[in-house]
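Researcher: We plan to redesign the surface later, but first we want a full-length starting point. Tokens attached.
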């Protein structure tokens, strides 16, 4: 259980972005990173991944390593550590994420394994700041572990429908999702949950009083670069996407992305 919580905490820390100021990445590092193979080489059944280090990059308190494994080349990420090119390392408690965007490196990894470096090689300030007891890690994960779902009870909500040809209620978006796929729609609703700066975007749960908890069609998730506050009534206009799975529990049958907000 402690290993699972530790892995989740590390993954969510990456997704939320490090608070530390990232060091500059020179053009040579960017070029080498762009040329690196990025195949899907999943960890072993025990969550470990062993390989020879082909390339390393430190950024935002983490070390990204390109490994030559028995299954091909793969990127992995661990807390910042002294890792030498050519050395053989093992990443433990590994979890693969698809389409991960690193803001500090300004690049997206098609596949990357998040985990911890085996052998206790963590170094410097990262090691000094690391807390390994399960309660501390659970506390780190808690703020974002439930991003994919809205609150169990947000009280009575009765919001006036948005105006315009593309206006829909939350329930109508779910009901018409097949025909609305990849189109822009507007919906007015009350912000019942807000999580900022996760995977490079802000996450909003919006309800307008339509739909029901039993059918799970009363709460729509919205991603945006704009901000909102819980309790606000806003109009959002975003693109309907279906069956989006960002990994780490961020899975949505229907979601509005790249939304603009009018308050």
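Model: Full-length starting sequence:
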């Amino acid at each position: 259980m402690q290993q699972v919580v530790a892995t989740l905490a590390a993954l969510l820390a990456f997704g939320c972005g490090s608070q530390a100021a990232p060091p500059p990445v020179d053009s040579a590092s960017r070029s080498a990173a762009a040329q690196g193979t990025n195949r899907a080489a999943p960890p072993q059944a025990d969550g470990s991944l062993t390989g020879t280090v082909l390339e390393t990059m430190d950024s935002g308190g983490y070390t990204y390593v390109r490994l030559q494994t028995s299954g091909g080349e793969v990127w992995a990420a661990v807390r910042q550590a002294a890792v030498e090119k050519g050395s053989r390392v093992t990443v433990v408690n590994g979890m693969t994420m698809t389409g991960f965007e690193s803001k500090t490196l300004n690049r997206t990894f098609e596949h990357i394994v998040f985990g911890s470096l085996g052998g206790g090689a963590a170094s410097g300030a990262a090691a000094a700041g690391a807390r390994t007891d399960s309660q501390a890690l659970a506390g780190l994960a808690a703020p974002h572990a439930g991003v994919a779902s809205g609150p169990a009870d947000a009280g009575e909500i009765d919001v006036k429908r948005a105006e315009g040809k593309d206006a829909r209620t939350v329930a109508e978006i779910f009901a018409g999702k097949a025909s609305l796929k990849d189109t822009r729609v507007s919906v007015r609703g009350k912000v019942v949950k807000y999580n900022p700066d996760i995977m490079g975007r802000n996450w909003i749960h919006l309800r307008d009083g339509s739909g029901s908890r039993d059918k799970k069609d009363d709460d729509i998730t919205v991603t945006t670069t704009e901000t909102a506050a819980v309790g606000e009534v806003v109009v959002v206009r975003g693109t309907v996407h279906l069956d989006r799975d960002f990994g780490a529990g961020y899975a949505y049958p229907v979601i509005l992305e790249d939304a603009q907000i009018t308050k």
